[in-house]
Structures are given as C-alpha cells and as structure tokens.
Design brief:
It is globular and about 80 Å long. With 483 residues, the chain is mainly α.
Length: 483
C-alpha cells in the first residue's frame, strides 16, 4: 500500500512538471502576436497579441470602421471574438495561479488543481467562441476586403489547453483520497521564488525579449516594411559606422560627451555615501527627516518639470535674471539656459540635485545594519565622532559602494536620454549629445532603424565587457566580485 502511494506520488509530481511547462507555454501565448488565435481576418492587426485582443476592444476593432458601416462584418461577431479572447486570458491567468499553488502542500495543490480545471474549461470555452466568430466572419459578402483567415495557431493552442484540462482532471482524481492539511503551507524557498517571479518576468519582457529586435541590424529595413530575406544585407550597417565619415565624426563626438559625463559621475559617485553618513550624524531627528525628504523628492519629479523649474529660474525673464537686473548688476536679462559653455558640469549638477537624496537611501539602510557595539567599543577607546565615521562607518559601507560602482562602470555608455533631451538647444547640441539621445534622434528623427539597432547592439556588448572587466579588476585588487 505504501509502495502504491509512493508510485502515485511520483507520478503526480512528474505530472506537475508537465502542467507547469504547459502553463508557462500558455502564458507565452498571451504576448506573442504570431501565436494569437484571435486573428481571424486581415482587418485585425498582425502585431496584435491575444492579451491585447482580450483587454482592448478599441484596438481590436481599430480597422473595422468601414466593415461595420458597410455591413461586411457584424459587430456581434467581433464582440463575441473579444469576449472569447478575454475568457482565454482569464483562463490562462487562473492556470498561472494554479501553477504557483502546485508548489505548496496538499491543500494548496488540491485548490490549485480545481482552479486549473476551471481555468482550462474557461479557456476551451473561449476557443469555441473564437471558432464561432471565425465562422460568422467567413461568410462575409466581401471576402477580399475582410480577408477571413483561420489562425494557424488555433489548433496548437487548443491542444495545449486540452492537455492542461486532462492533466488537472487526473491530478484531482489521484489526490481525491489524500488527506489535506489543515492550513495552506508552502516551503520558504518556494515563497521566495514566487515573490521574485514578477521581477524575473519584468526583466525577461523588458530586457531580454527586446533582443529579438536586433535582427533589424541585418536587414535594409524602413519603417512600415516587413522583414524578408530579399532585404537581408548582412553586416552592411556595421561597416557603415566606419565607412561614412559624417557618421564617424558624430559617433566620436557622441562618445566623447557620453564618456566625459560618465567619468564625472564615476568620480563623484561617493557623494551619496558621504551625504548618507553626514545625514545619519545629525542629532536633530526632525531636521534630519526634513533634509532627507527635501533631497529625496526631486527624484520623483520628471525631467520635463525639472526643466520647467530651470526655465523659471534661469531664462531671460526668470527669477535670477530679474533679480540681477533689479540690483543693477545686469543691464538686461540673459537666458543662461542658452549658454553652451560648461554643459557637462551643468548636467552633472542637475543630475546630482535630482538623484543624490534617492541614491543615499541604500547607504542609509546599510548604516542602520552596522553593529552598534562597534561604535560603543570605539567610544570606550576614546574615539571621536569623525574617527568613528572614518574607521567604522566608511569601511562598513565600502562593499555596497563598490557593488554600485561596478554597476556604474558597466553602464558607462548609458547616461539616459530624458535629461539631455529637455535641456538640448541650438547652442549646446554639440556638447550635450550623448549616446542614448543620439540613438533616439537617429531612429525616431531620421528613421534609420538598422543603424540605430547596430549602435544599440554595440553599446550593449561594450557594457557587458566593461562589467566583466571591472568585476575582474575588483576580484584581483579586493578579492571580491559581484559575478
């Protein structure tokens, strides 16, 4: 009997691996347009995902205006398609939740199996609705205008949902005789994994999924075109960076600005640590909180509003010009924002004002974690305040500082774009053009998508090499590394 239970338990665990893999695949269905089973006609955008089809009716019907007016497509058909897509999305969400519950104890698993069964039923009902919507669209009087098409991924997606349904049903039958625990419980490692899962998903979606766009660097692509092998040009755009003298001059100037501002930031990267130390040394708690709040708030102000503040202060009719004119120091107002000198220093000052308080938070947290007995022992030994700061606080913060410093080295080519875009004008264009802003203007302004992609690829490769190089140097000099 015990052996039979063991065999069933092993079979159940292996079946959970299959269910989790199928659930993960169904989540991918949500966001990959090529696997969208809801694209039942040519009027539906080919770049529309199943998720968008189920949550944005206006986007789904964006190109159906004339078809609705002429009666080529009934609104009820598309409304059925929308509701069915939404049902599939909800079913996938339920399956995803059940997959997370399968990491818990028997009570968690039983509830998860039930939710998975219900979710798969909802998914299959949604697929039936999509099929019915296709049948209604397929009988249109203007097939050339509507372009009815049966989605190629329909049966593949349906099969996955059927397998999830069958697997969940088998799990319910196998676990029906098992006694559930009184409480919902889950091992700590699985709870931590589930807490970390959303961040892994965000990184995958916003950091790794966009790498698929690197393929544009190998095609002669223009906005609105489709990628096809007859437009494949290999490394043409890579060689374009060194063949075109104008592009070479632009790249050299952009790299000079980017590296110059980045090195200023690296040379002053200790400022948040010093600010945090002196902030924690303030004895007046209310004043300390005021200073911390006052220096942290600018981080939440967008660069557009920062420029608005700068304009109110430094423009021709701004506060500073009006004050100096009224004092008789200047004969007329001057627009200091239109001055192209010392651009690097100005950008660093604005960036420091905006971010020093926010950057100090991590050091404040690290200071709160320092063993207070060290300070008490130092006080007994006769150490003063600055001696304790230098010999206890600073050494305790250095590991945190070096980790952040190494990450800054890796991002030496990534200055951001917002700050430089809003402060850019005719007088400082040459000295303020950094790599991210150059890529933006090259891609959005001039429409050179392949060349923009090449520059972004090279920037990513260089950043990775810098990270590993800085990590190697840190390991050699300090014996510690972050990788």
């Amino acid at each position: 009997m015990d052996k039979s239970k063991t065999v069933k338990g092993l079979a159940s665990d292996k079946l959970y691996y299959f269910i989790r893999a199928a659930v993960l695949l169904s989540v991918i269905f949500l966001f990959v347009p090529a696997l969208n089973p809801s694209r039942i006609c040519g009027l539906i955008n080919k770049n529309l995902s199943l998720f968008t089809s189920g949550v944005a009716y206006s986007t789904l019907t964006a190109d159906f205006g004339r078809a609705f007016r002429k009666g080529w497509v009934e609104k009820s058909s598309i409304q059925m398609l929308y509701v069915s897509s939404l049902a599939v999305c909800l079913g996938i969400a339920a399956n995803a939740a059940s997959g997370c519950m399968s990491l818990g104890n028997i009570k968690f698993k039983k509830l998860g199996n039930l939710i998975s069964l219900i979710g798969s039923i909802v998914e299959l009902a949604g697929m039936v609705g999509i099929f019915m919507a296709y049948n209604q669209v397929a009988v249109t009087s203007k097939p050339k205008r509507v372009e009815p098409m049966f989605p190629g991924s329909f049966w593949f997606v349906t099969v996955v949902f059927v397998l999830i349904f069958l697997a969940s049903l088998i799990q319910i039958i196998m676990m029906s005789k098992q006694k559930a625990e009184e409480k919902f419980e889950m091992e700590t490692k699985f709870r931590l994994f589930l807490m970390f899962l959303p961040f892994i998903s965000l990184v995958a979606v916003f950091s790794y999924l966009p790498l698929w766009g690197w393929r544009y660097a190998f095609f002669d692509y223009k906005v609105g075109d489709t990628l096809s092998m007859d437009k494949f040009v290999g490394f043409k755009w890579f060689t374009e960076l060194v063949k075109n003298p104008a592009t070479v001059r632009d790249i050299i100037n952009v790299l000079k600005n980017t590296l110059g501002m980045s090195f200023i930031g690296l040379a002053t990267s200790w400022l948040p640590m010093a600010f945090a130390i002196f902030l924690c040394e303030m004895k007046n708690i209310k004043f300390r909180r005021f200073v911390q709040t006052f220096t942290t708030v600018p981080n939440f102000i967008s660069w557009v509003l920062v420029y608005a503040i700068a304009f109110c202060i430094f423009s021709t009719d701004g506060f500073l010009s009006s004050l100096l004119v009224n004092l008789g120091i200047w004969q007329e107002g001057q627009n200091l924002l239109m001055n192209g000198s010392h651009t690097w220093l100005k950008m660093w000052l604005w960036g420091t004002w905006k971010g020093v308080g926010w950057s100090a938070i991590i050091y404040i947290s690290a200071i709160s974690g320092i063993d207070q007995q060290l300070y008490e022992a130092a006080t007994v030994d006769g150490a003063g305040r600055f001696q304790k700061m230098w010999n206890i606080t600073v050494p305790s913060l250095l590991p945190t500082f070096f980790v952040l410093f190494l990450m800054s080295v890796a991002n030496i080519l990534s200055n951001g774009m917002d700050q430089y875009l809003v402060f850019k004008n005719a007088t400082n264009t040459t000295s303020i053009m950094v790599l991210d802003l150059y890529v933006y203007e090259l891609g959005i302004g001039k429409g050179s998508i392949p060349l923009t992609t090449v520059v972004s690829m090279l920037k990513s490769v260089v950043s990775v090499l810098l990270l590993f190089g800085a990590n190697r140097v840190s390991k050699t000099l300090r014996g510690e590394s972050i990788i």
